[in-house]
Amino acid sequence: MREVVGNVDEIKSLEQLEEMISEPSFAAVDALAKLDGDIVILGVGGKMGPSLARMAKRASDDAGIKRRIIGVDAFPSGNDQQSRLESFGIETIKCDLLASDQMDSLPDVPNVVFMVGMKFGSTGQEPLTWALNSFLPGMVCRKYRKSRIVAFSSGNVYGLTPVTLGGSIESDPPNPEGEYATSVLGRERVFQYFSAAFGTPVTIFRLNYSVEMRYGVLVDIAHKVWAGEPVDVTMGNANVIWQADANAMALASLAYASSPAFILNAAGPEIVSIRRVAQQFAELMGKEVVITGCEAPDALLSNGQLGHKLFGYPRVGVRQMIEWIASWVMRGGESLGKPTHFEVRDGRF
User: Fold this and answer.
1) Could you give all domains of the chain from N- to C-terminal order, each with its CATH number?
2) Please, how many CA atoms are within 13 Å of residue 209, restricted to the half-sphere of its CB?
3) pTM metric for this prediction
């Protein structure tokens, strides 16, 4: 990535992909060089957690800092994720985070990345959604009141914003739509409350949307084009950011955690046209694209300029991602089978 991204025309294997999405940026290495102590990652088993944990290890090694990187999750039986993380030098702890005794038994560390959350399947499971998204953060804040915390959040808290404005900025008032986005705003408010009450340094990390070869907005579009399925462009625009760049921004933002909580959007510099992306995939894949709907004047969009100022522009652009993903999908590359539902406009996930 820092050295090789310009020389990579195609991502040919899962091993190569995992190496690339865990490549730390200079900003991440610099931040972890300045921070003392170990790092615990709560919810390490999600889509981004394994690569973020591995990046934290690599960035610490690059900085010459010896520290423990500890990944915490439920780690269901039959899943090899725990042993794979350990093969990269990451310690793992199996834990039901909603169980207070298990939460209390976690090691005390000075740096915490909170990645737990429920989005897909939240409609119909609203109580669990609120427990994970809003109640659990309070437990974490009490446990880690003396730590610095990066709390993953979502650009969904802004609600739909006019495309002509260029995306919501951090100072815009939240306007969430639906229980998922509202519960995520609840997560933020809990972290903000305890940050002020305990003086806990916190960064609220509003992500919109991470992409790699196996999932993301661009991957959703690519699979539709490849399968000859219609692409709905009613949600006509989106933000995307290469997962390694999002991971690197999250780790670097540990150094900006503050009380009151610091809010940061994590988004690529472009507002991406869904129609244009579908047309680009069709051209690369030799397919005809079927478009349905008509672009609405508003969308879920975040302005990532503050993050770019602090940590530099993302290292991978949209066109590069499109080319990599087109090749990956045409070759039958692995998919996580977890569509983003970026086209949802009523907040029901």
Assistant:
1) 5-210+241-268 (3.40.50.720)
2) 22
3) 0.95
